[in-house]
Every structure is written in structure tokens, then in C-alpha cells.
Amino acid sequence: MICERVKFKYLKQSESLLSTKQSKFVFEVTGSDLIFKNVVFHKIIGEVFLSNLILIDSKLPELLSYIVKFQHFGKHTSLKSIVEELISLNPLNLEKDFKKLYYTYKVKSLLDHLARGMNELEAWNDNRNLHEYYPVMKIGNELIFYGENIDRFLDKLFNSCIVITTTEIFSKKIRISLELKIGHQI
User: How far apart are CA 157 and CA 154, in angstroms?
Assistant: First the structure.
């Protein structure tokens, strides 16, 4: 029997899962004031990042733009809290019974891809064969392995992520960089 060494990547507190410094969300300001309702998503700069998001789901760029916008203009930095706000306001106008499942599932799906190595600079092929490493998180004194219980791993990751935005303003356009970090261990 041949045994191969298994490699692990330990996801640490304050580690960025996504940092779109090379790929920015561009919003247009439609009114005279820089307020939530006057800021409309225009595009994502960064073709590779955009293609990676569309690979996961064609609505993911728009969904992420709302996460960026809600964090920038809102009071939450917790990814879970922002998604709860999205569910409540339903900006994608999903069916009432479907919206909680959709918003939560799509964000967890993004986290799944990020934990397995997707980034904004390289084309992602959704390779589920984790040849390079298996992600691991430490919560308290317990290690949670991705391959052991994927749903539990993603729940813990979803609950611990924080959203950070950095803004550049150019007359009637705003460029916002998005960063998803593992904020606190639950």
C-alpha cells in the first residue's frame, strides 16, 4: 500500500481569503449626494476575477457588489450580518421562500472556492481534487478539517469572516476594494 503525505493549509485568524486590490468594484454616483441609494454597481475591474465569480454563479458579481455596498454604507463588518441584511432587503428580488437559501448558499459557495485556493489573479477551474492542501481551521482547541465535514467547516468560516472595504472616489465614480478576512475564531 502506498501512503501519500497529506498537506494542510491552516487558515489563521486575520488571514485574507479574498483581497481584491487588483480587482475593484466600480460604482457610479447617480445623484448629488454620496448615499446608499445614489450609488449603483457598474462593473468589476479585473477580467480574471470576474470570470472566476461567474464560474461559481452568474449573479455572484452583483451579489458581491451588494455586500461591498452594504459594508461601505452600513454598520456591519461581519459577513454573516451583511448576508442577513441582504436576506431582509432582498436586493436581487428573489422569491420570498428562496431568498435565505440563495444568499447564504452562494456566499458559502464563494468561501468554499476561496478556502480551496481561488483568487482574483489566476483563472479558476473549480478543481475539487485538493492535490495541494486541505484547509484547516482552529476553533477554540478543536481543529476542523475541510474534508471531514465540509458543511461544518463552511458554517464556521461563514460565521467568522469579516468584510473590509477600501474606497477611492473619482468625480462620479467610486472604486471599492473588497477584502474577506477570517476575523475571529468562534
Answer: 5
Q: How far is CA 83 from CA 31, 50, 64, 102, 161, in A?
A: 26, 20, 10, 10, 11
The phi-psi region of residue 126 (left if phi > 0; otherwise alpha if psi is between -120 and 50; otherwise beta) is left
Q: Show the cell assigned to 64.
A: 458581491
Q: What are the CA-CA distances from residue 29 to residues 36, 38, 82 (Å)?
A: 9, 5, 22
Residue 122, C-alpha cell as written in the block: 489566476
18-60 pLDDT tens trace? 887 777 899 998 887 888 888 999 999 989 999 999 999 999 9
Give 166's DSSP letter. Answer: E
Q: How far is CA 128 from the centre of its chain?
A: 18
Is 67 exposed, middle or buried (CB count within 10 Å of its CB: 0-12, 13-18, 19+)?
buried
Count of residues making up the chain: 186
Contact 103, 63 (CB under 8 A): yes
Other Cβ atoms less than 10 A from the Cβ of 172: the count is: 10
Model's pTM, two decimal places?
A: 0.84
Lowest mean pLDDT among 24-38, 121-135, 161-175: 121-135
- Of 13-22, 59-68, 129-138, 161-170, the range with the lowest mean pLDDT is 129-138
Give the three cell numbers for residue 153: 467547516
Rounded Cα distance, 12 and 138, in Å: 8
